[in-house]
Amino acid sequence: MSKIYSIKNYQPRQEENFLFDANIWMYLFCPLGNYKPQIIQNYSNFLKRIIIANSTIFLPSIIVSEFFNAYLRLEFNILKTMEPDAFVDFKRNYRGTERYKETIEYIARIVKSNILRMAIKINDEFASMEMDALFRNISDHDYNDKFLIQLAERNGWKIVTNDADFSYVQNVEIFTSNPKMLRQ
Q1: Largest Cα–Cα distance in the chain?
Q2: Distance between CA 96 and CA 3 in Å, rounded?
Q3: Residues pairing with 176 in the sheet
Q4: Would you say 70 and 26 are in contact if contact means Cβ atoms under 8 Å apart?
Q5: Are 172 and 4 in contact (CB under 8 A)?
Q6: Which helix (H) or strand (E) holds 59?
Q7: Which of 42, 46, 111, 167 is the most buried (most CB within 10 A)?
């Protein structure tokens, strides 16, 4: 059975270590998403409690990559909705444009000025990962999620996510405000 906890009333402790999924960083630092304010508030409040408790947030490069990609894809999809004839293909019509360059520089500032001030960069340990475990049931689960789960499991970290795909996790504590996950 998964170990899933609500972030709403959880009080982090100093010795606890967390890994924030990319979707959490998106809620906190991507104004394009127009996410539900309550979701943002829940994760923002939890982040504040983590900072006050002096808990640690670890940041592997895969999360930064996902944050960049999700942010850029979100902006592209918004532009595609506003101007469908001009923004047909991400690589041909968006990447390399002035808008893309401005956005990527903005995202880099968010990572450097905000996320890296709260999280500790870590080596992702790929060289020592158990490949069979990563590829087991790969058609049922996202590779990046499986990688993060294995990384968290190896290091005793707790994962903060809003992604229901993490509901199947067995050996890592998951913290969320996702009602679907909490009902399990």
Answers
A1: 52
A2: 43
A3: 6
A4: yes
A5: no
A6: strand 56-59
A7: 46
Region of 135 please: left (phi>0), alpha (psi -120 to 50) or beta. alpha
pTM: 0.92
Please, is 166 exposed, middle or buried when counting C-beta atoms within 10 Å of its C-beta (0-12, 13-18, 19+)?
buried
Residue whose structure tokens are 């087991």? 136
pLDDT digits (tens, 9 = 90+) for 75-131: 999 999 999 999 999 999 999 999 999 999 999 999 999 999 999 999 887 777 788
Q: Find the domain containing 145 and state its range.
A: 3-182
Under 8 Å between Cβ of 55 and 14? yes
User: How many residues does the structure list for the chain?
Assistant: 184
Whole-number Å distance between alpha carbons of 165 and 174: 11
Q: What is the pLDDT of residue 2?
A: 64
Q: Read off the amino acid at residue 40.
A: I
Instruction: Tell me how far CA of residue 68 lies from CA of 23, 25, 34, 111, 168, in angstroms.
Output: 11, 10, 17, 9, 26
Q: What is the CATH number of the domain that holds 148?
A: 3.40.50.1010
> Domain count of the chain?
1
Question: What confidence tens digit (pLDDT) does each residue in 90-101 have?
Answer: 999 999 999 999
